[in-house]
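hey so u asked for the seq, here:
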Amino acid sequence: MVRSKGEDAAALRQLMARTEQARERPLRVLFSTRQRMVRGSFVVLGKKCGKAGCVCRRGQLHPTRYLWASEQGRTRMVYVSAAQAAAVKAGAERYQRFRRARAELVKLSARTVALADRLQQALTDALAVTVAGQKEEGGGGEGRTSSGGRASHRR
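ran it, structure tokens below
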């Protein structure tokens, strides 16, 4: 067998360990989310009411609360009453925090898989196929070509 020159396996293991440690924070966020979430983003927009003597005519707009959410590929804006605002805002913030943690886990999982592939490559030896009458690299083998009969390994 021929040892391929590749990456340092120990360094790859350390990178994998650090990547796995980084998963702790987003997992804590997911595990600690106990209350219900509200899908979407809570926003407050300024609005003019249309009354002639109102302060909104002079630039001091009325705060109007909405929940923005994507539904069937379209963005919907739903009015949120003042009575519901605190609960909807808290639920939407939990949802955003949960989604960010989930996205981080997806990224870290992909990195772990890529590092595992690199580690496998670094630890895998290449099979040296010999041609009849030539010595195998690294010496010692009595192999023949793959079409010429006996393999160079022993059972």
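The two ends are 15 Å apart (CA to CA). Residues 9-123 form one domain.
lmk if thats what u needed
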